[in-house]
Amino acid sequence: MFKGTIDENLNKQSIKGSEVKKLREKIIETYPSIEKYLEEIWPKDAKVLKSKIKVEDYLVQVYLIDDEIRFMENRDKIVIPTMRILHQYPFMMPHMQCDKGAIKHILSGSDVMCPGLTSPGGKMENLERYQVVAITAEGKVNAMGIGITVMSTEEIIKKNKDVAIELIQNLNDGLWKLTRPAATL
């Protein structure tokens, strides 16, 4: 989704305390296992700003916490952590594992296809449609992407063709490069 370079000169805006509170509640509701760590990720006294990044033909809302992009909100209003947050808290969302053959495609920005999950190197959790998932690879420790399921696990197994997971962010994409620790936004 974040192919190419993203302009580091983001048009940042402050957000109201009530909006911050609602966003934190939405994160806890979406990722309940992260609740006890939310204060580490998003301290209550942190400076919170929002900005928009043009992606393909629409805008993605990003949230900067103490000048670091830590969450984004897609066009469907789903709040998604960045890859860096996922790597720090890998237990926060379900994982879907692709076979080794899918790695180069996902790292170049392709969605995850059903056969990459149903082949011998793939592993799936029992999930419904429209769930945020960490995309891992056979033989690798860290996630290589974050996506949203467009089919349930049952549908993926039954159909075994077409897109199973829409890729939101992957390692080394424009957002990954923009959120690198040394970046000053």
TrEMBL record:
Alphabetic keyword roster: Cytoplasm
Cytoplasm keyword on record: yes
Cellular component terms per the entry's GO annotation: cytoplasm
Superkingdom in the source lineage: Eukaryota
GO molecular function: RNA binding
Alphabetical list of InterPro entries matching this protein: MCT-1/Tma20, Pre-PUA, PUA, PUA-like_sf, Uncharacterised_CHP00451
One Pfam family this sequence matches: PUA
GO biological process: formation of translation preinitiation complex
Subcellular location: Cytoplasm
Keyword match Cytoplasm: yes
Segments forming domain PUA: 94-172
The name this protein goes by in its record: PUA domain-containing protein
Native source species: Halteria grandinella
